[in-house]
Amino acid sequence: MAEANWYIVHTYSGYENKVKANIEKTIENRHLEDQILEVRIPMETVTELKNGARKVVERKMFPCYVFVNMFMNDDTWYVVRNTRGVTGFVGPGSKPVPLTEDEMKSMGIKGNTVEVQFAEGDMINVTSGAWADTVGVVQAINAQKQTVTINVEMFGRETPVEIDFADVQKM
Fold first, then answer.
1. Does 40 lie in the same domain as 85?
2. What does the pLDDT average to over 122-142?
3. Residue 23: in which H helix or E strand, if any?
4. For residue 35, with 0-12 CB atoms within 10 Å meaning exposed, 13-18 middle and 19 or more buried, which class applies?
5. Does residue 111 fall inside a structural domain?
6. Same domain flag for 87 and 163
7. 151 and 97, same structural domain?
């Protein structure tokens, strides 16, 4: 099977978050998790000076664009292209062009891989974020997204929670 590539999708101004949410919902509804791997809006942290006060805010690096990591085929092309708010893929005509390795590195999409010292079944401690000080057993590791899934007890039930590699440590 071919390799998954990153593609850039052009959206209406201000629709980036809606497009991301709609694509993710369609992936879930049509069970395309193995074909459309990730949808991302690159963000940067900047300090703004407003009315004499400094404020740290998250800003979109590329307004009107959403990045999608997927295996290109007729189904995935159709799903993404026909999502409400999408005007088309970046590329000549109707043929999407995947990003090269150099383009991905320069945009901060690839290049920073994280080595983990734990495996499925290991006990880990969440060190920061909403689930800080929670202990759980690793159920799944997603190297692509750099996340780990653990089960957390909530309201008397085991609930899977996805947490970034940076927020956990092995016990």
1. yes
2. 84
3. helix 16-30
4. middle
5. no
6. no
7. no
Both structure tokens of 114: 């994280």
Rounded Cα gap, residues 161 and 25, in angstroms = 18
| Structural domain includes residue 115 | no
57 has pLDDT over 70: yes
pLDDT at 111 over 60: no
Q: Helices then strands (H, E): number in the chain?
A: 3, 11
Phi/psi for 42 (5° steps) reads -60, 130
Taking residues 36-58, report their average pLDDT. Answer: 84
Q: Which domain holds residue 148?
A: 123-170
With 0-12 CB in 10 A as exposed, 13-18 as middle and 19+ as buried, what is 127?
Answer: middle
Tell me: do 146 and 69 sit in the same domain.
Answer: no
- In angstroms, the CA 12 to CA 144 distance is 28
